[in-house]
Amino acid sequence: MDPSGRDLPDLPLAAWEASKDTLHLCCQVVGKLQLAASIEQNHWWNVTLRVGPRGLETQRLHDRGRRYGLAFDFVDHRLELRTEDGVADGFALRDGVSVAAFFAEVTTLLDRAGIATRIAHPKPFGVPMTTPFAEDTEHASYDAARVHDYWRALLWIDGVLAELASRFTGKQSPVQLFWHSFDLALNRFSGRTAPGADGMDPVSREAYSHEVISHGWWAGSADTPAPAFYSYAAPEPAGLAGDPLAAGGQWVDTGNGHLALLMYDDVRAAPDPRAAALDFFQSAFDAAARRADWPAGLSRV
After folding, report:
1. How many C-beta neighbours within 10 Å does residue 277 have?
2. How many helices (H) and strands (E) would you count in the chain?
């Protein structure tokens, strides 16, 4: 792929929404296994997936002292298991396989490898779908070409967010895919605790325990039915939505605050897509950091 982004794939949500929903739920299965088999880190960074050279990967997982990992391969369209002692196994990702069937295949895969990790709560989290994984026969779509395009987009955006990360010297997350909301994100922190976090649910309280400015991308949702780049600040400083955004970005009132949005197709059409995405993210960060009076010296730009 051209690193400038001039060959970013077309990714209309309507063309693969059923496949996206199925893949999202399958990523939740793998993400929840990671939750059960990883060492807890701040802001839930231990449960996220990372963009790899062929798809999405877990971090290093542990089962009774034995290390292993799982990876979605979106080139050969497989779920792969690798262990430190040489086990290499997997199964095909294919159209017509329901979430229930995927869940059963993952369980069998772990059993064959002698891995005892199991999900504590085997049902979706933070999404409209509520059917337990083992019972979900409704979601069974897998458009291999569209999933491959999705991974190509993720791979490019991962590089953009990595470049953005190089501009910041404070505490920040890895570039990671949060499987509850299915967004690829980079989170930056001021170093100060966030007021009001004690009133949140336990998951949100850990995620938003400190002041954060988040930058990311997702492939579309019910609220934004097209792929888009985004940024927000939590807590949101007063007056933020009055500041201009670069590259044609707009502030959107979500009802719970304001989200800076730049549509993916607008970036694809830009003369320099990489510069457009970076300029958008930088303008959103600069506005939020200035309004929230973040400490000086955290940014190299």
Report:
1. 29
2. 6, 12
| SS3 state at 214 | strand
Rounded CA gap, 244 and 222, in Å? 26
**β-strand partners of 80:** 71, 90
d(CA 264, CA 270): 10
Secondary structure letter of residue 168 according to DSSP:
B
What pLDDT score was predicted for residue 193?
93
β-sheet bridge partners, residue 217: 184, 229
- 52-91 exposure pattern, b = at least 16 Cβ within 10 A, e = fewer: bebbbbbbebebeebebbbbbbbeebbbbbbbeeeeeebb
The two structure tokens encoding residue 35: 């939750």
- At residue 145, the 3 state secondary structure works out as helix
pTM of the model as a whole: 0.95
Radius of gyration, CA atoms only, the chain: 19
State pLDDT tens for residues 218-240: 999 988 999 999 999 999 999 99
d(CA 225, CA 92): 29
Mean pLDDT of the chain: 95
- Side chain identity at 24, as an amino acid letter? H
**250-253: strand order across its sheet:** 176-178, 183-193, 210-218, 228-234, 258-263, 250-253
Nearest-5° Cα angle at 48, 30 to 287: 150
Cis-peptide into 235, omega within 30 deg: yes
Over residues 90-131, the pLDDT tens digits come to 999 999 999 999 999 999 999 999 999 999 999 999 999 999
Which residues, 6 or more positions from 86, have their beta carbon under 8 angstroms from its beta carbon?
none
